[in-house]
UniProtKB/TrEMBL annotation:
Matches recorded under InterPro entries: DEAD/DEAH_box_helicase_dom (IPR011545), Hel308_SKI2-like (IPR050474), Helicase_ATP-bd (IPR014001), Helicase_C-like (IPR001650), P-loop_NTPase (IPR027417), Sec63-dom (IPR004179), WH-like_DNA-bd_sf (IPR036388), WH_DNA-bd_sf (IPR036390)
Residues annotated as domain Helicase C-terminal: 711-926
Annotated ranges, domain Helicase ATP-binding: 494-682
Protein name (database record): Activating signal cointegrator 1 complex subunit 3
Superkingdom of origin: Eukaryota
PROSITE patterns, alphabetized: HELICASE_ATP_BIND_1 (PS51192), HELICASE_CTER (PS51194)
Organism: Durusdinium trenchii
Amino acid sequence: MASDTAKGQLGQNGSSFTLRPRLTGMLRARLYPADAVHFDMDLEEIRRYKAFEGQKGKNGETKITAKDGFCMQKFVRPDGLAGDKHDARQYFNSFLNQCAKVAGDEVDRQSIAEFVYDTTSGKGMSMNEDEQFEAIKQVILTFTKQDFSRLRGLSQKLFRYDRFPASDEKSKISTKPQTEMEYEFGSDLDFIYPLDASTSGGWRMTPDEPEPESSEQLFMNRAKALMADSARPKEPKPKPGSVAPRKELLWFRDACEEHLARAAGSSSSSSMTVEELMGQLLETLDKGEDADQNALIDFLGFEAFELVEQLIERRRQILEDWVELKKQASELISKQGTVTTAKPQRGTSFGPRISVMSESEKRHAKQSKKAAIRENRPTGELAHMAALQLLATLTDEPAADLEIKKPLAKPSADKNKNVHQSSLSGMGLKLVLPEGTQRQVLKGYERVDVPAAPPFDPEKGKVNYVQIKELPQWAQVAFKGTEQLNTIQSIVFNAAFGRSQNLLICAPTGAGKTNIAVLTILRLIGQHMDAAGGLGRDFKVVYMAPMKALVGEVAEKFQQRLGPLGVNVAELTGDMNLTKKELEQVHVIVTVPEKWDVMTRNTACGGGQSDDSLQKLVQLIIIDEVHLLNDERGAVIETVVARSLRFQETSGQPVRIVALSATLPNYQDVAAFLRVEGENLFYFDSSYRPIPLETSFLGITETNRVKQMAKLNEICYEAVIEQVRKGHQVMVFVHSRGDTYKTADTLAQMANDHQQLGFFDMRTHMQFGYFQQQVQKSRNKQVQMIFDKGFGIHHAGMLRSDRTLTEKMFLAGVVPVLCCTATLAWGVNLPARSVIIKGTSIFDSQAGGYKDLGILDVQQIFGRAGRPGFDTQGHATLITEHANLNNYLRLLLHQMPIESKFLENMANALNAEIAMGNVSSEKDAADWLRYSYLFVRFFRTPQKFGITQQDFERDPSLEKKRREFVHEAATKLCNARLIRIDNNRNYNPTDLGRVAARFYVDWETAESFSKGLVQEMTDDRILALFGKAHEFSQLKSREDEQAELGTLMEDPQVCPVRVLGGTDNIYGKVAILLQVYLSRRYIDGFSLVSDCNYVLQNASRLFRALFEITMTRVTNMSEMSDRLLEWCKMIDQRLWQSQHVLRHFCYPPGSSSSNKGGKSLDDGPKGGVLKEQIVKKLEDANFDYWTIINMTVSELTNITRSKDWGKAVDKYMRRVPNLILDAKIQPITSTIMRRPAERRF
C-alpha cells in the first residue's frame, strides 16, 4: 500500500509535506464502530483544526488547558509494584480532593485538577513559583499561597508516577520538523486507537482471559489480519437482529463498569459487582418512568447525574435489548438442560467455572424442573441471572456464540438458617428506600422520614424461648431477675452455651449481645468447675471492650453477675496495672485491644509460645463491637486476633473467639477472618431491634455559610421542641467541646424568643433541689449557667465529677435536653427517647481539615435512641448538608462493607512480631499475613490492592502480593533501624525495635527518638523531643488556649524548664502541660485539662522508651540515661527532682486501688501523712535532707514553730532510705582493677 501513497502539495513559505493515505472503506468497516464508518473528511478537518489551535495561544506559545485525559490510569502502571500503585492512587485522590476543596463544588474537579497539575508539574514547569501562582489565581480567584504550597507539593509527588510526563516526545508540540511524518496534519496530537473505546471499561472477570495486549499492538495485529484475509471469500454478514440489539446493552455495561471504577478510585467502600449494579439499575428502569430519576439519583448519587440522564434517555432501547437478551438466556438454559447450583469453594476465584453434567444428573435436573413447574415456582429469576451473566461477558460477536458458563445460584430455601433478614430479590438491593419513606422539600432544606422496620414476629418465626430455669442450677445465678432469654439470645443459645466453636453475632444495638457473652463464659466455667462447685485458676477469659470508657462499666456488671460463682473480674487498661499475683487470681480480664496487644507482646520473648505465660491460660476471647475493624483502631484487633489464631495453630492450645457486632453487610468476610463456621454465624437485621427506631434525615440546601448555620440551629430547635413538648428527653450530638455549650445556649435563647422556656423548666421535679445544690458545688461555670434553663452539657474536656453529675441529672429526668459530643455514645449507657446529630462536619487532625462524620459513629449515636428497659420507641434525626444527604441514606439503609485498616499500621504490627520472635523472614511475614482480615479483603475487593486477574491465575494464594506488602513495611522498619534485613530476606530485630515493641511506641516515634537523642541534652531539648512524638500529632493548638498557655509558660513556679517552640507549636504545648502536671497547678480551660490527661497517658511510657534507647547505646550516653531516669521518676511520683524529699509524705502514693483514673489532674487521692505547709517552710529556709538529718527534735521545733510538727519531721526523715556506699580501688594488672564496695543503710 506504500506504493499507492497519495501525495498532495500544500504551499506555505515554499514548504510542502506529504499526506498519508486514508483508510479504505473495508478497513473502516471492519475496524471502526458502525457510526464511524461513514467518514466526513470536512467535519473531521474542522474538528482537528480546533483541537490543534486549542494547544496554542495567541503568540503561538503553548497554552495550558484542562483535557479529559487526566485520570488515575495516567499515573498507575498496570505492571508496576503494588506499593507504587497504592501510593499513586493515594496521591491522585488527595490531589483531586484538595483541588475540589480549593475550587469549590461548582467547578468540575477533574478539569481544575489537570489545570493545576499542568501548571505546577506539566507544561508550566518552566515558570517560577510566583508565575505559577498567578496563573492559577487568574482561574481560581480565592486561591491562596497556602493552597498553592499544598497543591504544588502533592503534584510534585504525583509527578514521580506520571506515565506520560510533559517532557515525553509524544506530548511535545514540535516546532521544527524532524521526519516526514511530522508534517502530517494533526500528527502532534495524541492518537487514540479505536479499540480503546471498547476496552476502556477495564478487564472483566471471564473464564479464560489471555494476557491483555497493548491497544497499539492489538490494533496493528487486527489490521494485518484483515489485510491478509482480504483475498479470502467473504462470509455472509450476520443478521442485523443478532448484533444491533446488543449495542445499547454494551454501552450500558461499559457505563456501569466506569461508574464502579470511579467509585473505587474515590476511596468508596462499595463492593458491589458489575452484575449486581446492572441488575439493580435494570430493575429500577423497569419500574416506570415517573420514579426513574429520583430512584437512580438516590442509588448512584448526585455525582453520577450525567449517567442518570443518559440512562433515562436510553431507557426504552436498553429495556428492549434487555428483553431480547433474557429470551436468549432462557433458550440457552433450555439448550444446556439445566443449571447447577454453584458449590462453595476454598478461597475465592475470579473466573466462573464451566459446569459439566452427566446423563443421570440431566435426568434428575429435568425431574426437578417439572416438580418446580407443578409447584408454580417461577424460573424467571434464573433467566434474569443468566442474562446478567451473558451481559457481563457480552461482545460484539453474533448472539449464536453466547454461552452460560457460570453456574447459576438456584433460589432455594437451603440458605443459612442463622441469617435472619428480610428477603430482597434481584441481583442488587430490591429497594432504594424502605416502603413508607416520605420526602419533603421545605424552605431551606429537604426532609426524608424513614419509618421503623417491621418488628420481627416470634410466632411466625417459631422461636423456642429459653427459660432461665432450664439452665443448670449454678448458671441461673448469673441471670437473677430474668425469667427467659429474649429472641436473639434464645436463637443463639445452643451455639453459645452448647458448643465451643468460634462465634460471630451480628445484631442491632441494644439487642442483648452482652448476655450472649455471659453464656459463653458460663460454658467455660462449667468445664472448669469441680464437683464441689469450686473454680481453679487454670483458665482466663479476655473481654475486649471498644473503648476504655466502657471497661469499668462492663467489669462492674460482670462482677455482679459472675461474682457469686467465685469468678474474679479485673479491669486492665493503661491506667490499671495488675500485679503478677492479681493476674494469677483473676478469671475474667476486661480490657481494650491496645492493652491486650501490649500484654501478649511482653509475655516473654516468645510471645507465650515457650513458657507458661498469660496467653497459654486464655481459653476464651470476646471481642465487642468487632465492626470497629473499619476504624483506625481496627488494625489492633486484627493484630491480636492474628496472633491468637497463629498461636493456636502452632501450640495446639484451643482458644475460642466470640465476636459481637452491629449489623454488617459483609458479615461473611468477618466470619472467614475469625474462622467461624456457618452454623456458628448469626446475622439479625433491623427488624430484630427490641425498640422500633424511626429516623429522619434533613439536608440543608442553603449555600451561604451564615444562612446555613442559622438554618441548622433553626431545624435543630424545631426537632428538639417537637420531642420536649411530648415529654421526651433529647440528646443533641455536636462535634466539638465548645459547641456543646454554644448549642445549649443557642437553643435556650431560641426557646426564650419563642416563649417556650416553660417546656424546659424542671423545677417541679422532686429531685431538682438536690441536683441544684450539687451543681452549685461544680467548678464548671457553664454547667451552672445552663442548668437553670433546663439544659446540660457533656464532653471529654469536663472534669470527671462534672460528667458524672450531668449523667445522673439526665438519667433522673431533671435535664430534658443534653448537648454532648460523640464520646458519650461510645461510653456510658445513657438512654434518650430521641437523639439528634447536629451537623456532620468534624475536624480530622491527621487530614488537617474537616471530614464527614463516620458511619460507625452515626450508627452508635442512633443506637442511643430507645434503648431496651428505658423506652418503647425511639427516634433519631440527622441534620447535614444537602450534598451529603443521599450519601448518608445509602450508608445507613444499605450499609457499606467493613474494610481493613491493617495495611496502614502493618509496620508497627510487623515490628512487634519480629521482636517477639514470631516472624523471622519475609516468608514468615507473608504467612503471618494470612491470619489477618486484610487477607480476606484481598479476595473480595482485589482492585483496591492492585490485584489483577492474572495475579490470581499465576498465584492463587497471593503469596507474591503478600510478600510485596510485607516487604514494603519491612523496608520502612529497616530504614528506621528497628530491624535488619539480610540478603536472604531474613528479619532480625534490633535493640531499638525491641524497645518500640515493648513500650508500644510507634515506629516513626522510635526513629525520631533514636535520631534526636544526643549527648548532653538539656531539659528543654528533652521536652521538645518528647513533644514531637507521633502519638501527639492529633493534638492541635487552639486560639482560645493561647492566653492561658502563655500565662502558665511565663510562671517560673509552674514551668521551671524553658519551653522551646512557644505556645504555637504542639511540642511546646506538650512541654507546658507536662510541667503543669508536675507542679500540681490547676488549669481553667477544660479542653486543656483533657489534652493534659492525654499527654500524661503517654508520658510515662514514652520516657521509659527514651531511657531504654539510651541504655542500648554503647558509649557516651550514661549521663543522658541518668537524666532520663530522673524524668521517669518525676512523672511517676509527680514531683520535681529539685523539691524536698519530704514532699513524698505530703501526697499518698498512687496505686491501682487508690487511683483508678491513672495519671490525671482530677479525682486523685487527697491529703497525706505530712502537711504540705510544713515542707514549704523547710524549702523556704533552704533546709535540705542532709541538713535536717543531723538536727535534733528541738531544733526542728524551732524551725517549724510547733513541737508536733518537729516530731513529725524527725519521724518521717528517718523513714527516708539512706544508702551509704564505700568503695576502694585496688589495681591488679594494667587493664584490670579490683573495686570492693560496702553498702549500708
